[in-house]
Amino acid sequence: MPDYAELHCLTNFTFQQGASHAEELVKRAVELGYRALAITDECSLAGIVRAHVAAKAHQLQLIIGTRLVLADGTRLILLAPDGHAYADLSSLISHGRRQAAKGTYHLTRDDITRHSPHLLALWLPPTPPTPDDAAWLQHTFPDRCWLAAEQLYHPGDQARLHQLSQLSRQTGLRLVATGGVVMHVRARLMLQHTLTAISLGKPIAQCGQHLQANSERHLRPRQHLADLYPPALLAETIRIAERCHFSLDELHYAYPVEMVPPGLDGIAYLRKLVNSGLQQRFPAGTNASVVAQAEKELALIEELGYENYFLTVHDIVSWARGQHILCQGRGSAANSVVCYALHITEVSPTLTQLLFERFLSRERNEPPDIDVDFEHERREEVMQYIYRRYGREHAALTATVITYRKRSAFRDVGRALGYEEAQLDRLSASLAWWDEPSAWQARLQEAGFDPAAKQVQSLLKLTRELIGFPRHLSQHVGGFVISRSSLSQLVPIENAAMADRTVIQWDKDDLDAMGMLKVDILALGMLSAIRRALDSVSRIRGQPFTLADIPPEDPAVYAMLQRADTIGVFQIESRAQMSMLPRLKPRHFYDLVIEVALVRPGPIQGGMVHPYLKARQSPHTVTYPSKDLESILKRTLGIPIFQEQVMQIAVVAAGFTPGEADHLRRSMAAWRRTGKLEQFRDRLRTGMLARGYSETFAEQIFRQIEGFSEYGFPESHAVSFALLVYSSAWLKCHAPAAFCCALLNSQPMGFYSPSQLIQDARRHQVTVLPVDLQHSEWDCSLEDMGDGQHSVRLGFSMVHGLSESTGRRLSTARPASGYPDIESARQLAALTRQDMGALANANAFSAFTDNRREAWWAVLGQDTRHDLAIGTISPEATPGLPALSVADAIQADYASLGLTLGPHPLSLLRPRLTQQRLLSATAISQMPNGRLARCAGLVISRQRPGTASGVVFVTLEDETGNTNIIVWNELAQTQRKALLAARLLGVYGIIQREGAVVHLLAKRLVDLTDWLDGLPTSSRDFR
Fold first, then answer.
1. Does the pLDDT of residue 866 top 60, yes or no?
2. Most buried residue, 204, 338, 772, 988, by most Cβ within 10 Å?
3. Cβ distance 584 to 598 under 8 Å?
4. How much is the pTM?
5. How large a percentage of the chain has pLDDT more than 70?
6. What separation in angstroms does the CA of 170 have from each of 125, 158, 166?
7. Residue 599: closest CA among 688, 697, 721, 424
């Protein structure tokens, strides 16, 4: 059989065209014995790193290229034979993408000419081909251009080949065979048709000639190709492949040096900053061990050449702090004394046992990855600073590949198969977020579809295939890549959907594979809330009050946490965390570190939670296998909770090097996906036995490591989070009005809606005042009540349908004495009728009338009094309109604000609930363990953690508080309709009490939503 190299092949990163993953194409090419494979996605290198990794694993030559359709219709395949050509190709793609809106590109022949010196070109000529085009190509690509011939069993294939042969003789352009591949096997044809239909936005049945005529655009056996193409055309593919010797491994990435002052090199400047930072952090003198650790880190940073990376992050953080933007580094960077000295993180080495190798190690030979959280509303300022500081040719955001998930796949495939939107809505509503593919047929049947029907079977099959396919490239939440050389010569840059943002075509995993550095500029809503709360406290006290001024180890804060009074508190407001707090009973800061890390999938699946709680109750019974391990495990009472501890155990008890231990950690994270953890069992066992540990202990450690495979939490990360836990808890405890106001102004964030946050604040004696034309600002604000007390005034931002510009205008245009009447407000603030209606719906005119119907009447009449068509007339007297009933007022509040400051809706239903013996949340909380009970409440959240064996946790709210419901998997399946659809849910069950922690174990669910009479409530559902 002849040798062959496929030179025209699209992956599914040519969105809605390619029907195979890059890895599938590479594997299939190897199976068929191809000499090489060119990945030529359209104006894109987005999938090339995945192909590169797969090709290296399979020892297949990978050729990097792209397919382009120029503005005049010319179709080309461009290939990169060497590094210069790759830089040209990447720059060309960047140029084309930057000249057009996101998702498109625009290139002309002049663009090709400017970027062509090193590229190879395959021309896909039209029918009939034009000699003028051939002449331009010969001039642009001398001795580097070919005619691509594709034999796909189309009518006229032989005539077309004859025509191209004549053109080849006339022009001297050589012919080469290509396959125009869009799938790795012919069985993907139906999926490819589906993708075409999705692209066109119409059913497959209406796509006509846009569909592939047959299934020949797959990787075909070489013998089959030999039957179709003359030998010379197949041989030419090998000659072209032999000219292409570039590999992505040749890319040279370097970090910028702009931040280094003249006269210093990077490491000298970094050392200077670190020494200065340590003096600031430890004014009384630095501990010798901390100095030694800093020197160790600096030496490794210098050896691996990462000093400029640290300087860049320091520069970004310093600029942000100079703009009074609250920020904090976290994650593995918190394992670094250098990061602490540079004020990148706030995790002191005195708080935890640092393990720098988790952050950076010689053996791992991978770049560090620093995450810095910024106030979510001010992060854009930081991002634009980076663009200004380094330029758009040197800085861009990392991409995120948005892939098809269950619901999106079902919808798009359903549309392609001709299903009506109403059918798709019904199908979508029948699927819960936890439904596995094995349950899909049952869900379809429940929704009224016949699982045996051929169309339904196609729907299921195609949906399974489509899940995981890329839909489009989006921007990463904040990962920045910054390069010393032109970034566009390393990886293409394109426009993001958001203005003033540019994105590279590679995602985080691609960067890791290529060893390219990024810094995560992340947004954290709690930082915005804390900064706002601190600003409020500063104004109240009349002097600056910062995070550093929050008193440590406040007993009142810990008493509040032990009661699980943590709605709104960072990280520990979830159901699981609130259930743990009364059992863990945190008394000190490190207890919060434990709390943050313990309620995670890793410790839960590793069976560490109950042993730790037991050890905490009886610390005198804790024993350690050795003195060496006692130093590692003592702070967690003998139970390894953190990733760093597992790594330290491997080093101390099994003889691993720190770098090998980090390899173990990374294998833990990928265990479910790769199964590579098993290779460490013998190494751990042998090492522990050689050091005197028992085989039982070795097996126990390995089982715990397996538990971490789901999610082992790093101690450094937990400490970073615990700092914000304590800060937010202190503010909730000692400045509840300021904290509530800050949370409302920082939405969306957290587990709880503004309605629940306000109700919680009112239970803590915080007065919350309504939106008022005379007093409200755009944001919620604090109003002085005297005696040092402050109330929360709801802002215009809470009013549905009111724009920010209008809300701010209402505030700035308001006279010092207030608006004299509604009409004055309309004129001074230039309010539209829609604005007036939104304010009337929110009862914001209560200063002028306490009857909302009268306000509505005024709004209805406000335009006609100044209608030029009929002249100015006197307004008619407002008729006597009855005030809204309490129930109608509550309904109007929810419709316009999403909450009410009036009676809770369930207080109006309480007589009916009592008649049905449905108890309040307070009554449920006081019942003994094992008692039969029933309750009802508004569904405010549903959670189904992946570690909970199908259990769904539901939180219900009534006028007295919240009730926590446990719904086991069997009941969740049999009563899924009530569970998923009910907004007012009745629950019959059994009380489960463990100390102060009370749950109602559901035995029966009842949807009582019709009792709400149309009240528009909503819940927050979490995976």
1. no
2. 338
3. yes
4. 0.83
5. 92
6. 15, 19, 6
7. 721
